[in-house]
Design goal:
Layout lengths: L1 E9 L6 H14 L3 E9 L6 H11 L4 E7 L5 H11 L4 E4 L11 H9 L5 E6 L7 H17 L8 E8 H9 L7 H8 L3 E6 L13 H15 L2 H30 L8 H33 L7 E4 L1 H14 L1
Parallel strand pairs: 1-2, 1-4, 2-3, 5-7
Antiparallel strand pairs: 3-8, 4-6, 5-6
Helix pairs in contact: 5-8, 9-10
This protein binds uridine-5'-diphosphate and magnesium ion.
Magnesium ion binds next to loops.
Length: 326
């Protein structure tokens, strides 16, 4: 019997846990040939999420419920990493707690892997209903730029709701970078992926953790994490400025030879060149600084997440005992 493990990052989702469990339970019942594990990763919630998970775990009949509680809020990407690195399922799904990722999509996802020979299946929103126009426009621009200048091939509307084989999970866990731009990581590891399309759904309870600024920062980080083009751009800019300055010097030189008696004043042109070069130098240092900062964070080699509490070992022991009794 194959095991499907759902990894659910949760940050302040106390209202969603039980509703989530009820919804996925219905899908479990439709798939009696699989064993199900739900791994909730409590990403340092400030509300009662963890207790709610424990409560639901104690009354759950269908599927095994595990949890990992992190020591503080590490962000969704780190929470997912925690879940993935502790996962044991033959197939592993990443799914949000707020039911914006319809659990019934698991059925076509499983078919894609079992029957059609894909390594993973990823959900893709085809409508962005209920989303502000400006947000959609920014998102479109982001995808077009990042696909042009990096090796990545990202698709607009792709989510991190997916089901993958063990091999894919293992290769993602190998990518132990701290600045985790998950969409880029999934694309970078490759494998055969099937897109499963669905209509956008509003979250069932609670609030989104994304602000517009937060999304911008996310896009910026993704860009820096996978593109080194800005560094090269800076080199080109330096070369162009050098060539231009040579040309300028040459024209002045020639003019001086032709007409040596005219005094050469040029306060304005000096100011312009000075300010321009100053601006270029500061920008260049800034670009280098951005990458340097990433290197600094990576060489510190801090853990991606810190665990405060988990019941995974207990669940495993209990299952082992039950298996032995049989
Ligand atoms: N989440 C998390 N840590 C965070 C922020 C979010 O684990 O720091 C979880 C959250 O509980 C939810 C999922 O990530 O299960 C998606 O978050 P949200 O619904 O806020 O994002 P949106 O769907 O609006 O993109
Ligand atoms: Mg959501």
């Amino acid at each position: 019997m194959k095991t499907i493990e759902l990894i659910v990052p949760c940050y302040n989702e106390e209202k969603c846990i039980e509703l989530f469990y009820k919804a996925v339970k219905e899908v479990f019942q439709k798939l009696p040939t699989f064993r199900f594990i739900i791994t909730f990763v409590d990403d340092g919630s400030k509300d009662d999420t963890l207790n709610e998970i424990k409560r639901v775990a104690s009354i759950a009949r269908e599927g095994v419920i595990q949890y990992i509680a992190l020591s503080r809020n590490f962000g969704k990407e780190s929470a997912i990493y925690a879940g993935l690195s502790k996962s044991t399922g033959d197939y592993v799904a990443l799914i949000d707690a707020d039911l914006q990722h319809p659990p019934e999509l698991l059925v076509p996802m499983i078919d894609a892997i079992e029957k059609e020979g894909y390594d993973r299946a990823t959900a893709r929103r085809v409508s962005r209903k209920g989303e502000p126009l400006i947000r959609s426009a920014f998102s479109k621009a982001f995808y077009s730029i990042i696909n042009h200048i990096t090796v990545l091939d990202l698709i607009s509307g792709s989510t991190d709701y997916c089901l993958m084989k063990r091999t894919v999970v293992e290769s993602i866990v190998l990518m132990s970078e701290r600045e985790r731009f998950t969409k880029g990581i999934y694309s970078w590891v490759g494998f055969k992926n099937k897109w499963i399309e669905y209509q956008n759904v509003e979250r069932i309870a609670g609030h989104t953790k994304w602000s517009f600024l937060g999304l911008l920062r996310y896009a910026y980080n993704g860009f820096i994490a996978f593109a080194t083009t800005p560094l090269r751009g800076v080199v080109y800019l330096g070369i162009i400025i050098t060539i231009v300055s040579f040309l300028y010097a040459a024209t002045i030189g020639i003019a001086a030879l032709k007409n040596p008696l005219v005094p050469r004043t040029g306060y304005n042109s000096i100011m312009i060149v000075l300010l321009f070069l100053g601006g270029v130098i500061i920008t260049t240092l800034g670009v280098i600084g951005e990458y340097l900062a990433r290197i600094y964070m990576e060489v510190k080699n801090r853990p991606i997440y810190i665990e405060r509490e988990t019941n995974i070992e207990r669940v495993k022991e209990k299952e082992q005992k039950e298996a032995d009794q049989k």
